[in-house]
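dumping this here so i dont lose it
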């Protein structure tokens, strides 16, 4: 079969498909006959419905199905014959004029691009490294102590301070009118932990039990409650209860309660160090992987198949709608979500996927079974029952596909870093973990 491929623009191609009309009609008749044995129509016994009635009722839908199937088969055969890698779904339309006894169709589609990569030896990349310090361990222990703190009621003469737990009643109004979420009774929070807006916490600090106070509070423009974002409310707050927090001492007893291997403070610190080192390793892998992939994509030339970009845009918009639903937004399915907001990210994802796939193909960087197994074991190592976590991964193909994708990306990262001009760069533990002020 000779296939004539017309180049329209960049990645866009067009081919013409022709099918004998008799092939279409014969297949339609065959399917209608099979359908006649199964359909149920009032007034006729099963299998006894006349063919003209079956054709009248089901002919259009069967003809549509046959056309889709046969045109799809012809398209697949033509692209295989022409050795084309089709990107996305083709747009197929019937031609107005066809040769006698035939039906003709135009198929317009995109092909995958040629990816041209620069010599990686000319690419400069900063490779990060970080250490788990004693200070990082101390901070983690402090967090664990706070999770197990207790509270004791303070005297009536005491004033609310940072780290105190307060119980308050409050009511807010905007232009004299209450608003949703602006009123609560017996509401508890710990002063200084950021649970409330800074102006609210500032008003409560220094108050005594039984005291009431009114104050203005300006909601940030990006506040999650859109109905009050950017507005100023007048609040009245009454302090009903004041409790001081008490942190447990760092002792072997605390270490035991936290499940330290040998129930000692030294054992607790060793456990924390091991956990933090695993977390640091994964974060460094993630940061260095992103740097390598960004450099790889930045030094690759290719045209983007718009059909794949559009498919990615559709997925991202649908994901945004699902997020709106989870947040309880009414009519999330109808909410206007402009695609332009997501287009740069969609194009970047598609570009990244095409470049990485091409490098994997060229350099045989596919994930091996041993690599996948080692990664699953590493992911499960920090859990109390690693074997159960491993079974959880192996029991689901989609989870294993995610693991395989991560391993492939790491193979690509290692390959890029092995060739590029790499500069080692130290960063602090806090910077890596995103804890900088």
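and the seq i came up w/
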């Amino acid at each position: 079969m000779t296939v004539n491929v017309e180049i329209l623009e960049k990645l866009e191609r067009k081919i013409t498909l022709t099918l004998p009309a008799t092939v279409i009609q014969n297949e339609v008749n065959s399917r209608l006959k099979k359908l006649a044995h199964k359909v149920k129509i009032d007034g006729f016994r099963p299998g006894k419905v006349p063919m003209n009635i079956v054709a009248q009722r089901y002919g259009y839908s069967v003809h549509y199905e046959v056309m889709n199937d046969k045109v799809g088969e012809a398209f697949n055969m033509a692209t295989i014959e022409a050795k084309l890698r089709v990107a996305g779904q083709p747009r197929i339309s019937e031609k107005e004029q066809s040769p006698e006894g035939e039906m003709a169709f135009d198929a317009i589609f995109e092909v995958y691009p040629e990816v041209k990569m620069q010599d990686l030896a000319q690419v400069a990349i900063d490779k990060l490294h970080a250490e788990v310090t004693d200070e990082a361990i101390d901070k983690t222990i402090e967090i664990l102590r706070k999770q197990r703190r207790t509270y004791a009621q303070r005297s009536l003469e005491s004033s609310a301070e940072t780290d105190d737990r307060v119980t308050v009643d409050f009511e807010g109004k905007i232009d004299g009118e209450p608003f949703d979420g602006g009123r609560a009774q017996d509401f508890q929070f710990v002063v200084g932990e950021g649970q409330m807006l800074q102006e609210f916490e500032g008003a409560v600090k220094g108050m005594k039990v039984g005291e009431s106070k009114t104050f203005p509070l300006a909601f940030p423009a990006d506040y999650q409650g859109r109905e009050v974002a950017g507005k100023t409310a007048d609040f009245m707050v009454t302090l009903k209860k004041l409790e001081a927090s008490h942190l447990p001492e760092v002792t072997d007893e605390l270490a035991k309660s936290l499940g330290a291997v040998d129930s000692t403070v030294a054992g607790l610190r060793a456990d924390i160090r091991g956990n933090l080192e695993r977390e640091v390793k994964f974060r460094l892998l993630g940061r260095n992987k992103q740097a390598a992939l960004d450099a790889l994509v930045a030094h690759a030339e290719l045209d983007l198949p718009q059909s794949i970009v559009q498919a990615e845009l559709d997925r991202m918009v649908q994901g945004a709608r699902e997020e709106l639903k989870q947040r309880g937004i009414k009519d999330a399915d109808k909410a206007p979500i402009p695609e332009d907001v997501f287009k740069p990210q969609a194009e970047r994802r598609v570009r990244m996927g095409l470049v990485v796939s091409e490098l994997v193909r060229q350099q045989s960087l596919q994930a091996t079974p041993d690599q996948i197994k080692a990664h699953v074991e590493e992911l499960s190592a920090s859990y109390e029952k690693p074997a159960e976590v491993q079974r959880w991964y192996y029991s689901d193909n989609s989870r294993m596909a995610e693991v395989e994708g991560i391993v492939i990306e790491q193979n690509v990262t290692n390959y890029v870093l092995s060739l590029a001009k790499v500069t080692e760069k130290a960063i602090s533990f806090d910077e890596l973990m995103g804890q900088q002020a």
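The first strand starts at residue 6 and ends at 9.
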